[in-house]
Amino acid sequence: MALQTLENPVAVRETKQSGQYLRAENRSQSGAGISNVKAKQADLILFTTQLSVMLDSGVVLSDAIEAIAEQMRPGVFQQVVMDIALRIKNGDSFSSALEAYPRVFNTMFVSIVRASEASGKMPHMLEVLSSYLNADAETRKQVKSAMIYPVIMLLMAVSATGSLMFFVLPRFTKIYDARGAALPKLTQILVGASGLLANPVFLAMAVTIGILGFWGFSIWRHKESGQKFIGWTKIHMPIFNAMFIDSVMTRSMRILATMINTGVSLLEALEVMRSSTDNYYFQTLWKGVDAKIRDGYQLSDAIMLSSYNDLIAPGIVQMLRAGEKSGQIGRVCDRVSIFLEKKLQNSIRTATTMIEPLMISLMGGIIGTIAIALLLPVFRISSAVNG
Questions:
Q1: Each residue of 56-89: pLDDT tens digit?
Q2: How sure is the predictor about 22, in pLDDT bands with cuts at 50, 70 and 90?
Q3: CATH superfamily of 14-105
Q4: 68-77 as b/e, with b when 16 or more CB fall inside 10 Å?
Q5: Which of 130, 286, 94 has its CA nearest to residue 294?
Q6: What span, in angstroms and rounded, lies between the C-alpha atoms of 259 and 265?
Q7: In 10 A of CB 260, how many CB atoms?
Q8: Superfamily holding 121-387
Q9: Location of each CATH 1.20.81.30 domain in the chain
Q10: What does pTM read for this prediction?
Q11: Are 48 and 133 in contact (CB under 8 A)?
């Protein structure tokens, strides 16, 4: 009898799945690591897209999630999907199962799924959610690419300066000492800095101070004063401030459009918008808008009456007001998010264009200063010989 069961492909598949879900159930009951589980954005996008297609084809939700889990490569996210399928089989709703993993499925994801359960339009809503996740991932990639360039240039400047300070300058110093020539003041300063950086005691103190400073900064940045300072710096930072504001507004309007178009309430959308940014001033703005809407104001009026409303361009407020009058606020928010995305791309190009000559000038200034400090003694020795 056991042999016959093993020879049945369906039974083999069910046995394999039951073993997988038994492990998932044990892990779920233990509660180990549920709040710490995270997943890659690419895996989440693929899961959402596949689930939308399968549900649209008529596949039952639990079967669709099981099939997706089987196709995944082994890893944390596969275990999460397996556990979600198990919870649904045990009678939980899809949204309730997702809430067990808040760091994988954020409030927006859960809210849209809950709205889709109420409306019965889950395939369409998941398709909209997948489009949002793709667009958001692309925006993040563009912003990161713009920030990587100056970091690479800075690392090149540091490596070039370190090579000249620790390898080239000491050799030149030995030559000058052998000739008994007095070093110019600029060269003496660089020689002293090079010797100081090579001192183990100084390095140990610098590393210790750096670690303590980083620890103190990590604590301070979570306090209100730190959040205000960092938020103000991002908003007013030259070159990058427009890119930062555009990136926050693009994501906020995209969230608003996606959630309203899928039937989620405006107040829930505002809560997700507020949690999607770590900037103190934008959080305060959306919190104020939320309070004004609860008092009976329209979205556009609530924005104008809230603190830090200057972060939103008047043209955007006018478009939102037009959407409210026509009853198409979701469609208008979608158009605004497309407009802001194009504006963000222009901001990124502008920031990259401006940062390139600045970084080249910085590298040229540092390396040029060291080169002059190396050549000044040569000129002095040559003048003494010729004299």
A1: 888 888 889 889 988 888 888 888 888 888 888 8
A2: very low
A3: Type II secretion system (T2SS), domain F (1.20.81.30)
A4: bbeebeeebb
A5: 286
A6: 8
A7: 22
A8: Type II secretion system (T2SS), domain F (1.20.81.30)
A9: 14-105, 121-387
A10: 0.72
A11: yes
